[in-house]
Design brief:
Length: 1242
Amino acid sequence: MKSFNQSEQHYLHFLLWARELDGAFLWSRMGIKYHSRMGLGDGRYQHSAAIMPITLLWAVDVYGRVYGLSTAGQRWERADDMLLELKRVTAGKDRCWGIGCDHHVYLNMMPSETPIRYREETYENQRWNPVDSFTDTLLPTDRWPWSDVTGMNPQPLHSFELPSRSWDWEGDWYVDQNCGGEPSQTGGWEYAVDFPANFSPDKKWNSCVRRRRWIRYRRYTAQGTWAKIPLDNPRKPPLPLCDISCGGWEMSDQSGRYPYLWGVSQQGEVWFREGIHPRVPEGSRWEEVEVPKEVAQLSAGPGDLLWALLWDGNLLVRTGLTLDSPTGTLWVEVESPGKEIEALHVAVGVSVVWVVTKDYKVWFRRGVNSHNPCGSGWISIGGEMMVVDVGLNDQVWAVGEDRGLYFRMGVTLSEPSGNGWIPVSAQWGNSKEVIPPRKKCEFGGQLTEASQGSVLSCTDSDSELGPTDPQDGTKDSPVVEAAAPSVVPLGEAESPTPPLKTEDTPSASQQDAPKPFIPASDSFINSLVSDRDKTSTPQPSIAEVQQEEVEEPSPAPILPTPETAGHDVPWMNVDLEGAEAARCAQAAGPLLGDGSAAATYALGTLETSHGVGEEDGPVWTWISGGGCDVDASSQISWLSPTGPLTSSLSLTPVQSVAWSEQQQQQEHREEISKKPLERSNSVWVRKGALRWWRDWKPQRWVDVAVALEQSTKSDGRKDSIFFVYYTQYDEKKYLHVLINEVTALVPVLRDCHYAFAVYTAQRTKQRWPLVLAAQTEKDMNDWLCLLSDCCCKCRGLTGPPSRQALWSTTSKGDIMVHEPSFSLEAPANTLACDLMFWRQVPGHLRCVESNSLGLVWGVGWDGTAWVYSGRYEQQPTPGDAVQMHQQTDVRSVHVYENQRWNPMTGYTDKGLPTDRPMWSDESGLKECTKGNTHPPSPEWSWVSEWAVDYNVPGGTDKEGWQYAADFPVTFHGHKTMKDFVRRRRWTRKCKVTLRGPWQQVPPIRLSDISLMPCLAQSSMEQVPVWALSDKGDVLCRLGVSPKTPAGSSWLHVGTDQPFKSISIGGANQVWAIAKDGAVFYRGSVSPLNPAGECWYHIPSPPRQTLRQLSVGRTSVFSVDENSNLWYRQGLTPSYPQGSAWELISNNVTKVSVGPLDQVWTIADGVPGFPAEISGAVCHRLGVGPMQPKGQSWDYGVGGGWEHISVRGNSVEAPRAPHPAPVGPPRSPLPPRPQVNGNAVGV
C-alpha cells in the first residue's frame, strides 16, 4: 500500500472536506440546513420551513446536468457534483437514483436526522478440552471458529470490508457484553452442551462449547451527495443500463418500507436490485428477471404495479408482485394505445398508468388496480409530451415537446386524469425570471441569416441531424457554435472546419480551433422518435442504441444542416419564423430592420461562471417526481397557474409564446381564470369498501373494494366501468361490470344488510345478480344514486319517467320504471326482456298503476293511496324539490308458531324429526323465531310488539290457531278428530319513512286500484279510476285528470260482498273479483255514468278460484290461487263478457294487460332455477290482433319482484300494411252491451 507524506495527507483531508461541504451546499440552498459531520458529528438536518415537509422535484437537462427544485423554494438548484452527468433519474421519498454517462448507477440519499448505520457481527466459537480448557481448536464436525449465527458461513474479522467508499467504520470490533438482552458478567460468552444448542450465559458442568458476539458499526457518509453504486463482485454485473425505476415502498403498510429498484440494460434485459434496506440503501446485488421480449424502458409504482415498454412499441405488465415475491411471477403483454403508432414512454403510480406514444400524444390507462394491473382500456389525454412521470399521490409531471416541464392540474383520487397542464414556473440561477413557458429564443444570440424552415430538435443521443446538402451547406444554413467548449470526444479535433459565411466572421484562431462538442443525455426517448439519418461524420457515443424511424409529427420543413458542423446542437423543434412572428406581433421594429431580416439564432458567448447553455435556462430531457410530495391542494409557488392553458392543443414553443403574449393582453381587460381549461378526455373515479355475496359455494359475505371509473370523451360522451376487487386464496382478483350493460339496480333483503343487486343481461340469464352490501344506509343510497346516475347518463335518460313508462315494484317496496321503445312490442326483433333497463324512483309502494296520460297511482303496504307528483318529459328544475313529499309506509312481519299433538300431553312444541321448525315462516322451510326476526331491512323500525294475528285466510279459533291433519296441508279454523298439527300466526308492525315524489290521497285505505288505459293520442277530460278499499268496498274516483291527478272525491259503488281485485280496460270495461273468487262485470259504465248500473256475474274457471285480473284494450287475463294464467275468450264489442276461460300458462302471480293488449306478468319462478327467489318480470311474446293469447314467454330481471304495470305503454311499433280484414270492423267503443249473466246488484 502506498504511503502518503504529510502534504499529501493534508491535501486528501481537504478533498474530503470539500466533497462534504459541496454535498451539503445543495440542501442548504433548497431550504434544508445540513450540519456536516465535521461540525456536529451526526449529519443532522433541519427544516427551515416547519409548516410542510420539504421534498424535491428532480430533472435532467440535455447536457446531463441534474437539478433539484424544492417545494419550499422557488429556484432550480444544480446538483452538488458539477462534473457528474446523468442520463436520467428516478426518485423516491428520501432518495434519488440516477444512471451516469459512464453507465454506473448513482444514489443520492436525502440527509436525515437519523444516521444510516449498519451493524456487522460475527461469532467467536470455542470448545473445551481437558488440556487447554476452552480454545478455538474445534472438532472437524464443528462450526467455524469465526462464523455467522448459524455457524454455516465462516466470518473472520479480517474478512469484513466496506461495501463502497460511501461507508466509514465508526470504530473497531468489540465484544457484545449482553446475553439475551441482559448484561452479562462472563465477558459476553454464552455456553451450551454442543453445537448447535440453546446457549445461555450460565456456565454448567456439562458446558462443552461457548460463543460470543463481536460487533462493529459502519456509517453511510454519502447522504446529500451522489454516490456510485459498486459493481457486484464476484457475480456478473448487469450490462450497461439504459433505464432505472424505483418503487414498491407502499407495498407494505409498515412505515419506512424500503423501495425496490428495477433496471433495463441496453440489450433489453430487466434487472432487479436486491438487498435494499433502510440500513443498506445501496442494495447488495443485481438479479436478472426473465422477459419474453427486449425491453426499452420500465416504470415501477409505489405499490405493486410494474409496466415495461418493449422495443416493438407494445407494453408488458408484471403480475404477482408481493412482499414475498418482489420480482413478480408473470408477464402480460398489452397493446399500445394506438394501433399504428407505437408507445414511446410509460409511467405508473399507485393505481394509474400513463403512456406517451411516438406522436407525442398522452394516454391514460383506465381500470388499473393492484387486482387488475393490466387495466381495461386507453383514454386519450390532451397535450403533446415527450416524457411523463407519476410521482407521489399519483401526481403527473411531464417534459413537453418544447422541452419545458409541465404539471397535471386537478389530479385527485376521484379524478386521476386531472383537468389540464400547467408549466413548472420556477426561477433559474440568479435571475428572478421564471423558465417556462419557453418563449423567444431558447439560447442567447443574434439574428444572422434568413431561414425558411425550422431548426431540428435536439436529441439526447449522438448527432441526429438529417442529411446535409453540399450545395446549401455554406449558404442558407444557420451556423451554431459555442464559445466555451465542454467535453470534446475523441477524434473531434481532427474534424475539418470551413470558414463561416456570416456577417461576423470569426478570427483565424477561432476557425482553427476544434469544434466544441456539447454533451447530451443519450436518452432512448429521442432515439426512438428520431427519424433522421446520421450525418456523414457522426460523433462517437458512449453507448450505441438502435434507433427506429417514425414519421415526424411536425409538418414544418426541415432546414439543411452543414456537413461540417460535425456535432449535435441542442435546438428545440421551433418554427423560428413563426416564433419571431409571435414574439414581434406588437413590437416588430427593434429586432427586424425590414422584411428580409434574418431569423436564425446562434449561441451567444457563454460566461465562465455558467455551464454550457446555463445562462438561458436548461433544456429539459427528463423529470422525476417520485420524491416530490404535492397534491391538487398544495400551495406551491412554482405551480400556480396564471392563465388558461388548453391541454388539447400542442404545447410547442410557438404556441407557448403566443399564449404568453395573449395572456399579457388579457390582463388589462379581464380577470383570467385560475384553473386551466381542458377540452380533452378525462377520467373520474369513486372508490369505496363494500361487502359482496360471493358467487360460488360456500356462499358468504366477503369484504371487497369497489371502484366506479367514468371517462368523459372530448365530445361529452361518458363511459363507465364498475370494478369489484377481492382476494381468493391470497390471489388478487377482480370483477368488472360495464355500466352500459347494467339493466337494474335493486335494493334487496339479505341478512339485515344494506344490500343491493346489480343486474346485467348475462347475469339475468344466469339468475345470479351481483349482490353488494354497505355498512350504513347512507353508503348504500350514495352508491345506488351514483350508479343509477351513470346508467341513466349512459342511456341518455334525464328527468322523471315518461308517460309511456312501465312501472313495477319489488317485494321490498322499491319502485322501478322502464322507458319503453318501439322494439319492446314489435312483432319482429322484439327487445329481449333481460336487456330492459330499470331505474328506481324514490318512494315505497306495494303496487302501482299508470296510464299513457301521465297518471300514476300507487298503494302502500298499509293501504295508503298515493299519486305521483313528478313532472313528465321535462328537464329537472329547482321547482322539482317542492314535489318531494314525506312518505311513510307500515307493513306487518309474520312468524308462525307450529305444534303437534301427542296422546300424553296434547299439542306441544315437540314435533317429529321430519316436521318443520316449531317457529318458522309460512312455508315452514326456514326457522324464524320472534327473537331472531328483524324488519325487512335496516331502514325499517318496529312500531308495535308481537301479537297473535286473527285475520288469517281460512279463519282461526279464539286463540288464533289453525288446524290441519299434517304439515303441509290446507289449514282451517276449527279442530276436528283428524287434526294432528296446528299453527298460529304472530304479527308485528314496522314503519319506514322517506321522501319521494308522491302525494297522499286521504282518507280511505285501499287494497287495489286501476286506471283506464288509453292510447297515446287520446285526450280525456276525466280519467276513470276504480279502487277497492281495505274492507273490500268498490270505489270510483271522480275529478281525476292530468291537471288534477289526485281527483276530488270518492264515489262508493254498491256490492253485496267484499271484492279483492278490480280492473278497468278500454271502453270503460270494469271487471272485478270477489273475495270468494266470483267474477263480476260492471255494466253501463260511461263518462256520463262513471259508476255504471249493475254487476253481472261471470262464471269462474272450473274448480279454480281467481284472485287477480287485468283488462286491456280488447282482452281480459286473470290469475287464480294456484298461479295459473287464464284468458277470457269471445270478447267482442257486442258481447263484452266473453264466452269462456282458456288456460294459458302456470307459474304466474300477477298479470298486467296494456292498452295495446300486451301481456306482462310476474312469474313465480324461472324454469331451471329453483333456488331463485320468487318474482320475475316476464313478457308474453307473439301477442297480436290475430293471436291475442300470445305464443311464448321471455323471462327478464327477477328475484323478489311483486307487481308490474304496462298500462301506460302505448308505444306501438310501426307495422307493415295488411290486407283489409274480412267481416265487420272491431270498434273500441262498444254499443250498450247485451248482458250475459245475471244482474246481482244495482
